[in-house]
Design a protein that fits this description.
seven-stranded mixed β-sheet; 2 domains; 368 residues; Rossmann fold; alpha/beta
């Protein structure tokens, strides 16, 4: 099989989907790997590293799509890539379809097999290909939030952990999953007062056991959200419903109850955001202000720390890439139920129920 690794063209995206060791392993198994020149530059991986591992170098993005049976990416195809997609081609990447109807329509029309990293789920309910990037995003959310609380960034002018005699900032986290947990660890470590809200009481019990004393857990309901928003200096949106659009937990009316200069980091922006006023931004222009509240909503947060994120992502995606390359996507999906759940659109047919329900489309189960 021919596997293509394109250079990511999303704004300020510095990750790459495969490491040289992945190229070496695929080549050893008899596959051919084509890597677009400059694909690894943002992660500190040179073209020579890929070539030494056995990859062929390609100069143009179009050539990757033209020659590859399996395209392995980091982020969803952008409009300038839609015309390169070929019927029957497998494209393996993060899609987050529920956040973009145009992307969903373009992928359906292309006839490709779209396997989404974010909906690959094990029998235990884990998302192995989403977890490492959620860990990065969770930690980064506090790092970025702390910066934008500074007065030159139009924040409240607060130091997250305070100092003796001065109270620390209050960090409110909506969602106690991987993103929320990692955000809480960093915020607590910096000395902030932290509140985690979640609808899963068992998860809250677990977090209450493992977190330090400056972390409080609360049931996520309308009353508690409203009460905590009024006290929040930094709000982290960390809500995830697999494949579906994130629920809007903070309406425009609720936003007005937040204090001027407070900061929102909506990590759920990939799935549409859990704050009504959220809209996607970029690393170059990461924030905007609504009702005197600073919003940070960069969909590819881990892309800013490309080297860390690339290694974390490629470590977990490679076993699945090997399965698809060795057995074909249908054989791999038959043998691996987690991978089968990753097939969101199959040759024009939506196979993920959450995506179909988001846009009112018919859904057919993928049964290879």
């Amino acid at each position: 099989m021919v596997i293509g690794v394109p250079r990511e063209i999303k704004a300020d995206e510095y990750r790459v989907s495969m490491l040289p060791v992945g190229v070496e392993e695929l080549t050893r198994r008899g596959h051919r790997v084509l890597v677009e020149r400059g694909a690894g530059q943002g992660s500190g991986i040179s073209d020579e590293h890929y070539e030494a591992a056995g990859a062929g170098s390609v100069d143009k993005l179009e050539a990757i799509y033209e020659r590859a049976d399996l395209v392995v990416k980091v982020k969803e195809p952008l409009p300038e890539e839609y015309g390169f997609l070929r019927p029957g081609q497998v494209v393996f990447t993060y899609y987050h379809f529920a956040a973009s109807e145009p992307l969903t329509a373009a992928v359906r029309q292309s006839g490709i097999v779209a396997i989404a990293y974010e909906t690959i789920r094990t029998e235990r309910g884990d998302h192995p290909l989403l977890t490492p990037m959620s860990e990065v995003a969770g930690k980064m959310s506090i790092q970025e939030g702390a910066k934008y609380l500074e007065r030159p960034m139009l924040g409240r002018g607060l130091l997250l952990g305070g100092v003796p005699g001065v109270a620390p900032a209050e960090v409110v986290i909506l969602g106690g999953g991987v993103v929320g947990t990692n955000a809480a660890k960093v915020a607590a470590g910096l000395g902030a007062r932290v509140v985690i809200l979640d609808i899963n009481l068992d998860r809250l019990r677990y977090l209450d056991d493992i977190m330090p004393r400056n972390v409080v857990t609360l049931m996520s309901d309308a009353h508690n959200i409203r009460e905590r928003l009024a006290q929040a200096d930094l709000l982290i949106g960390a809500v995830l419903i697999e494949g579906a659009r994130a629920p809007v937990l903070v309406t425009r009316d609720l936003l007005k109850t937040m204090r001027p200069g407070s900061v929102i980091v909506d990590v759920a922006v990939d799935q549409g955001g859990c704050v009504e006023t959220t809209r996607p931004t970029t690393h170059r222009n990461p924030t905007f202000i609504v009702d005197e509240v600073v919003h940070y909503a960069v969909p590819n947060m881990p892309g800013a720390v490309g080297r860390t994120s690339t290694y974390a992502l490629a470590n977990v995606t490679l076993p699945y890439v090997l399965q698809v390359a060795d057995s074909g996507y249908e054989g791999a999906a038959r043998n691996n139920a987690a991978l089968r759940r990753g097939v969101n659109i199959h040759r024009g047919i939506v196979t993920n129920r959450a995506v179909a329900e988001t846009f009112g489309l018919p859904c057919e189960e993928f049964a290879p």
